[in-house]
Design a protein that fits this description.
CATH architecture: 3-Layer(aba) Sandwich
Strand content: 25-35%
Number of helices: 4
CATH superfamily: Glutaredoxin
Distance between the termini: 13 Å
Oligomer: single chain
Strand order of the largest sheet: 3-2-4-5-7
Length: about 110
């Protein structure tokens, strides 16, 4: 199913696996300190988190999620609605319409 199809959600395969979230600590992402802190606070305890070096996307904060061998790169993870959509993705595995705009890569 194509990710760019705005009419449907994309479902990650194995929802039993706890996603691993990595938050970029590159220079551009560190400038968004407030957004990074809010994101860390929202995620706290719901899944494994750690930091990752610059992902060369430079539209921060950048977040990489690994779920059942698949990786999702999200850019510009700032704003309350975007972060709420991200948390819903962590819980359900669905990339909704709002979050799809922030999805940079998927492998």
């Amino acid at each position: 199913m194509p990710i760019n199809n705005a009419s449907e959600d994309y479902l990650c395969p194995d929802l039993e696996v706890v996603p691993r979230v990595r938050i970029c600590t590159g220079k551009a992402c560190r400038k968004r300190k407030g957004a990074n802190q809010k994101l860390h606070k929202r995620i706290d305890g719901s899944c494994e988190t750690d930091s990752i070096k610059c992902q060369k996307i430079c539209k921060g904060p950048v977040v990489v999620v690994r779920r059942d061998g698949e990786r999702f790169w999200f850019k510009r993870m700032q704003g309350k609605k975007t972060q709420k959509a991200f948390m819903a993705f962590l819980e359900t595995g669905r990339v909704n319409k709002r979050l799809r705009r922030h999805l940079k890569k998927h492998r």
